[in-house]
Design goal:
- The chain is mainly beta.
- The chain folds into two domains: about 35 residues, no CATH class; about 130 residues, Jelly Rolls.
- The protein has three helices and 13 strands; from the N terminus they run αααβββββββββββββ.
- The strands form three sheets. Strands 3, 5, 6, 8, 9 and 11 form a six-stranded antiparallel β-sheet that branches.
- A hairpin with a 4-residue loop joins strand 5 and strand 6.
- The protein is rod-shaped and about 135 Å long.
């Protein structure tokens, strides 16, 4: 039998492979295909088939178009915490902040009858007088911190006498606290918010008309109070 050489197994020229295949079958008959004597089988020359011829690698083709985005996958597990970063730079210094307060609460133990057409209501008891902004001798609050203030006046009327007072800002009457003469004495109250500038004055004035004007109090209890405090300072 004709055996294939190593060149035949490793692949070579197509012509050599074809010629060796032809040589193997020359003057021979394939078994089972030809009729004749057993010599036909005996004279068969077997040839191992040639392996495929190895081709050279071609050039790389152009990149194809990008495909569509796929569906978004599930969120992954949170990773470990990173290292602590460096300390940042100090910021620009801000404006200094100063809190502003102003408040007072005063009372009067003695009753008062108006002896003149205009009379300032003065007080003899101090509950609160922050920074001394309320002048007890003059009965006036002096504004040292411009802003919005709240004021409240409480008085007790006198039987059969008229009660007629104003909360004043400088020389202007702002609100009235009034009660007609009656056989019953009652508590009256008035309040207001005012925007004040520095050196403004707030005080209580009694006003006398043809009838006697009075407020009631005694040495045991305090019936007359005047209060005020700063709500919002004007820092502009």
């Amino acid at each position: 039998m004709l055996a294939a050489t190593p060149e035949d197994r490793s692949g070579g020229d197509d012509t050599n492979c074809s010629s060796k295949l032809t040589a193997g079958f020359k003057d021979s008959h394939l078994p089972g295909r030809d009729t004749g004597s057993e010599d036909n089988v005996t004279n068969y020359t077997g040839i191992e088939p040639c392996l495929s011829t190895k081709r050279d690698k071609g050039e790389k083709g152009e990149r194809g178009p990008q495909g569509k985005h796929g569906k978004e996958g599930p969120i992954g597990i949170q990773g470990p915490m990173g290292l602590k970063g460096d300390r940042g730079q100090a910021g620009i210094p801000g404006d200094s902040y100063k809190q502003h307060y102003s408040a007072f609460s005063v009372g009067r133990k003695k009753g008062l009858h108006s002896s003149d057409y205009y009379q300032t209501l003065v007080f003899d008891t101090t509950f609160v007088n922050l920074h001394g902004h309320f002048n007890m001798f003059k009965g006036k609050f002096y504004c040292y911190i411009p802003g919005i203030y709240y004021f409240n006046l409480n008085i007790h009327t006198w039987n059969f006498k008229e009660t007629y007072l104003h909360i004043m800002k400088n020389d202007q009457d702002m609100v009235i606290c009034y009660a007609q003469p009656s056989d019953r004495s009652i508590m009256q109250s008035q309040s207001i918010m005012l925007e004040l500038q520095e050196n403004d004055e707030v005080w209580v004035r009694l006003y006398k008309r043809e009838r006697e004007n009075a407020v009631y109090s005694d040495d045991v209890d305090i019936y007359v109070t005047f209060n005020g405090y700063l709500i919002k300072p004007n820092l502009d």
